[in-house]
Amino acid sequence: xxxxxxxxxxxxxxxxxxxxxxxxxxxxxxxxxxxxxxxxxxxxxxxxxxxxxxxxxxxxxxxxxxxxxxxxxxxxxxxxxxxxxxxxxxxxxxxxxxxxxxxxxxxxxxxxxxxxxxxxxxxxxxxxxxxxxxxxxxxxxxxxxxxxxxxxxxxxxxxxxxxxxxxxxxxxxxxxxxxxxxxxxxxxxxxxxxxxxxxxxxxxxxxxxxxxxxxxxxxxxxxxxxxxxxxxxxxxxxxxxxxxxxxxxxxxxxxxxxxxxxxxxxxxxxxxxxxxxxxxxxxxxxxxxxxxxxxxxxxxxxxxxxxxxxxxxxxxxxxxxxxxxxxxxxxxxxxxxxxxxxxxxxxxxxxxxxx
Amino acid sequence: xxxxxxxxxxxxxxxxxxxxxxxxxxxxxxxxxxxxxxxxxxxxxxxxxxxxxxxxxxxxxxxxxxxxxxxxxxxxxxxxxxxxxxxxxxxxxxxxxxxxxxxxxxxxxxxxxxxxxxxxxxxxxxxxxxxxxxxxxxxxxxxxxxxxxxxxxxxxxxxxxxxxxxxxxxxxxxxxxxxxxxxxxxxxxxxxxxxxxxxxxxxxxxxxxxxxxxxxxxxxxxxxxxxxxxxxxxxxxxxxxxxxxxxxxxxxxxxxxxxxxxx
Amino acid sequence: xxxxxxxxxxxxxxxxxxxxxxxxxxxxxxxxxxxxxxxxxxxxxxxxxxxxxxxxxxxxxxxxxxxxxxxxxxxxxxxxxxxxxxxxxxxxxxxxxxxxxxxxxxxxxxxxxxxxxxxxxxxxxxxxxxxxxxxxxxxxxxxxxxxxxxxxxxxxxxxxxxxxxxxxxxxxxxxxxxxxxxxxxxxxxxxxxxxxxxxxxxxxxxxxxxxxxxxxxxxxxxxxxxxxxxxxxxxxxxxxxxxxxxxxxxxxxxxxxxxxxxxxxxxxxxxxxx
Lengths: 355, 263, 274
Prior knowledge:
The complex is a heterotrimer of chains A (355), B (263) and C (274). Chain A has 9 helices and 20 strands. Chain A is of the alpha+beta class and 355 residues long.
């Protein structure tokens, strides 16, 4: 039943514009993988290629060894949940759910029973005879889910399924989707631009940008150890400082950027190359008024209140940085301070061309 | 990269439909250029003599002028009374009864030929209105629904809080209408003008009954001409009208973009 | 206050429609019930006349056939247009708008040139030796229907393109993702969703061809008299105004009932407006 999906060096272009470039992706059997990125990054194109609504310029798509690349959409046997639900407005809830079974030649009686059983699972039995226009957003979403699941597809795909729901319902629905997906063990691809949604629901997340996968990893790894500056900024590392190593003593490293010197330890940060970028979230730079501490000299700017801390916009020799300071000690703009990197909140990235 | 394909059989049928749509007009164009005294296609010998003939025939010349006058005046009058009505229907939707919208659709619902006959009977003969005036008011009402509906559609998507913003900034209501509302529904006004003008210019069924000594419209004169002569003059007049249509479409393209025509 | 402003602004247009359309048309219809021979006498003489009932049924038949043919070809064409790439699609729409903006007289005249005794079609047939002498094509019901279809297919295409473009692409994709082949998607999804639009298009074409004057006049002549040409004859040639008014009343009644019944049906069948 559960199968693995394999995309091999997919290139896709509209006219001369390349939308995807040499994209490869492997989704293990039973796994839920999210494609995450801003609009235009190629995530939806990837989904539509897998669904068969688009054909790649080159590359192959296989599902457990079966080549799908040139197969028409209606022969691919993929369950798809659309952003706007795409329910058939002229069919009842039951008719919508039974539609796929009808196409597979399932006899009417069985079709009805299976569709009703599926509606039971998503808690919509009572609405079986309603038309989609008479449903709320959350109910429509459940019908769309039931309709895709009832055909027991070897692969299930979601195209921003929750983007039209309000915040509370979004959280409930994603838990529900994950539970159904886990229970069935269906291999799934989930497209979203919402980082929290992707991280909370997925086994692995592919962060996409400009038609490429920037990093494909477990959410925990992406969040703590981004592999490059793009992903780092994407997951909220606001401060990215290019640096150069000036001295090494065992694991203690001294690094320099625009005249400021910083002592770093490879024990926590891992190996530090001669040139690198130091990336932190605002949490990873703590504001200190002690002028002798190992930190980045800064002039404090605007202070905002975050609830758990104060956040400061800071001017430093390395440019504008964002740092957090203790609630017990609000500091005024214009004052001098040091921004101290918190080792386990920092991350070392290989130096690259600015994306 | 492509989406799913349409069945080639359907494409073939659609292609034939388009040949059917455009072909006859091409034939008229060809026939108008023929050097012969009878209608033929493909044209034998090329000549513009039948275009010159249009202006040699005084009845045609006169009706062209009448038709253009009526079309301009009727469109102008319809805009004059139709724009305030369309504005009122949208701005005061809640305050006005809903049948008012239906009222302005009636001229489309009543068969044109019935409308024409009724105009003859009640307005021209019954009330003794001069033919030219009857023709003008008839055409005004005939094109009014286009004005009210097209401009109404533009106004429906206009955010009236913009108007309120202008008034709150000290602009008097009437001036606000001309400086704020009207420029924002410009596309609708142009479209309404064109639709109304073309409708009036091409009208047969209403004008049919409102002919009198020395007064007739071009389409009616063409009908009469065709029944008497079978020379290429009518083809030439038709080509002139087609050129006018192309001109109108070019204006639409310039101001609104051609996709606007698809609404 | 606002209410008053609304009335004042729409007053000129209301006066125009009531005074120039509703009152005169109402008067025409009213006179048919005030005949000295009896309340329904004009209708009795209409329906007792074999010729006039023949004209009525001919008109209905021509309108029905025109509607059916326009529906079939209009729908297929609209489907192809709606699936065409954007650039081509707007070109095809313009190509349908152009004949629509060209007057009815010009468009009927074009078929006169084609179907006439010495028209292109006859010249071609004789030239190819398919027939020895010209076939009488003009002044037949076929000629009128061809002219009418020519008149109304663009309207049908434009109406249906609008309808089909309003059917979201992802609903059709949902259908194929659930395993429906293109034919199943067409019949089980596209068609049911297009039905309300098809009805609207059919009403437009039916009422239009039911009341058309120039095309049956030019291509049908006296042999194919329809209600519109009969009305004109009664009014302008025979000066039988009661007869003309009766025809006018019958045309109005049929047109308005078709519009009312069918638009109500279309609204009921439209799943989007539940």
